[in-house]
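Hi team,

Below is the intake form for SDR family oxidoreductase from Geomonas terrae. Please confirm the fields before the structure is written into the shared record.

FORM ID: S-0412
PROTEIN: SDR family oxidoreductase
ORGANISM: Geomonas terrae
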Amino acid sequence: MTPQEEKPFPRQRQEQPGIEAEMTPKPKSGEFEYRGAEKLKGKVALITGGDSGIGRAVAIAFAREGASVAFAYLEEDQDAKETRDIVEREGVRCLAFRGDVGQEAFCADIVGKTVAAFGRLDIVVNNAAEQHYREELEQISEEQLERTFRTNIFSYFFLTKAALKHLQEGARIINTTSVTAFKGSPMLLDYSSTKGAIVAFTRSLALSLAERGILVNAVAPGPIWTPLIPGTFPEEKTEKFGTEVPLKRAGQPVEVAHSYVFLASEGGSYMTGQVLHPNGGTIVGG
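The structure came back. Fields below:
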């Protein structure tokens, strides 16, 4: 069945952060869809939010391209084990770190452990995120606001800061922003705000690191079928998820993973400070 022929998603709801193993249908992360060509052979990548969704798809794609992979996740042990098993079946090493990327000490720790295990670090993918559905600004508590910013943008600063001492010329930093950074989202005010901050972070960091030959880019997905969706929205919205874009369907994580491979590989060697938009046809500026 092609993506265009897929049926609408059934109604479903999960508690945050969402478990991929409990989704119906399960997202397509590339285990059976992605074919590699050794574009990242010998490289080492560290991915946050790598247990499921886009992060899992990127981990699988990088492994298929020959990279060793380390990833961080919050508490979704079952998803993390499945991701690690899939990656290791590709014949590369994989490390999984359980903890909160919103804490600077944890980010420094996982960078250190990755370099200690693999001897190098070439690709950093800042991807971990959380979002909360709120119909009015007044419903966003101080605690939620801080938590969303800590996960979605503070962690990008923390991880990158720790990684920089290990990154050499030619290294890549890839940040996950969102289409909501460009077109907004009335029910995801704090999430959209962090995604806008990620765009500015990407562009500013790219300028800062250009002389060192470290390339910094971002990917801004549109509606992608990941655990964030049933973990965020009321169940009546899941069955219509993604139908508002020109392609009339949600994207799958594996369809987004190709953008990360491009930016991490030689294909992206003349790009920095840029944003790719796998979003189903939504036209955005910037």
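SUMMARY LINE: The helical segments are 53-64, 77-88, 104-118, 142-163, 180-183, 189-209, 235-238, 253-264.

Thanks, M.
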